[in-house]
C-alpha cells in the first residue's frame, strides 16, 4: 500500500478495501458507534427487530406503546413495567461480551480506538476490556442510580441515610431526558475520525442517530448491520457489510490478519 493509496471510493467499497486501509496504518483514529445489535448474540434482545425485539415482546406489560417503558412521565405514574424489564436487562455477570465487543477491545489495545459511542446499557463494552475513558454511554447505563425527584444517589450511597421516598431509577436515559453531558462534549471527536464503524443499530433515535453524519465527507464509514440504516449508501466512501455483525467483524479481522488474536481475546472473556 503506497502513500497515494486512493480512498475507498476509487476502489471497490468492500471489506477488503477497509482491511487494506487499516493494514496500511492510515486508520489511527477509529470512531465507533454501536447499538443493541452487537449484544443480541450475547442473549440480550434488541429493541426493534420484528419478532425478537423487546418492543415486540412487551405486550405482557400492557403499555400504551412499547417505548413507554422508557418514558419518564409514564415511569412516574407506573414504574412497575420498567422494573420488570430492568431485571431482564440488568447486565450483572449473566451476559458474556460478543465477538463484536472483543473486536472493539482489540482496536483499543492496538491504540486505534479514538472513541466508542454506545447506545447500550449492558456495560458489555467495559466487560470486554474497552477502557472506560474510550466509552461514551450515550443512553446511560446501570452503572449508577438516583432518585428521580432530587437526583441524588439513593440515601445509603450518598450517606444521607434518609430516603426521600421518591422513585429510584438507574442512570439510563429515558425518552424525554437529556443525554449525558459527555455525549455533547465528545461527539465532535467524530470529526477527527479517519474511519467510522457503525455496528448493530437502527439509527432511529436522535441525537445519537446524527453521529455518523458528523464524520467528514472523506472519512470512510463502514456499517455492520443486518439491514441498511441511516444515511449509509449516500456517501462515496460508505461501505455496507450487511448481515450478522459478529460474522462481519470476524471477516474483517481475518482480512487484516487479526483472526487468531481476536478469537483468543474473545475466548478469554
Ligand atoms: N448483527 C447485525 N445487526 C443486528 C444484529 C446482529 N446480530 N441483531 C440486530 N441487529 C440490528 C437490527 O437489524 C437493527 O437494525 O441492530 C439494529 C438494532 O436496532 P434497535 O433494536 O433499534 O436498537 P438500537 O438502535 O440500539 O436502539 C436505539 O432506542 O429504545 C431506544 O434507548 C433505546 O438505545 C436504544 C435506542
Automatic annotation (TrEMBL):
- UniProt GO molecular function: histone deacetylase activity, NAD-dependent; NAD+ binding; zinc ion binding
> Mind telling me which residue stretches traverse the membrane in this protein?
none
Cofactor info, note text: Binds 1 zinc ion per subunit.
Q: Which residues of the full protein are shown?
A: 8 to 276 of 394
The alphabetical list of record keywords is: Coiled coil, Metal-binding, NAD, Transferase, Zinc
Enzyme type, top EC level: transferase
Q: Which reaction does it catalyse?
A: N(6)-acetyl-L-lysyl-[protein] + NAD(+) + H2O = 2''-O-acetyl-ADP-D-ribose + nicotinamide + L-lysyl-[protein]
GO CC annotation: nucleus
Q: What is its EC number?
A: 2.3.1.286
Q: Which family does it belong to?
A: Belongs to the sirtuin family. Class I subfamily.
Q: Where does NAD(+) bind?
A: 36-40, 46-48, 119-122, 201-202, 225-227, 245
Annotated source species: Chaetomium fimeti
> Which residues catalyse the reaction?
139
| Positions annotated to bind Zn(2+) | 147, 164
Q: Which cofactor does it need?
A: Zn(2+)
- Outline the extent of the Deacetylase sirtuin-type domain: 8-259
Name the UniProt record assigns to this protein: NAD-dependent protein deacetylase
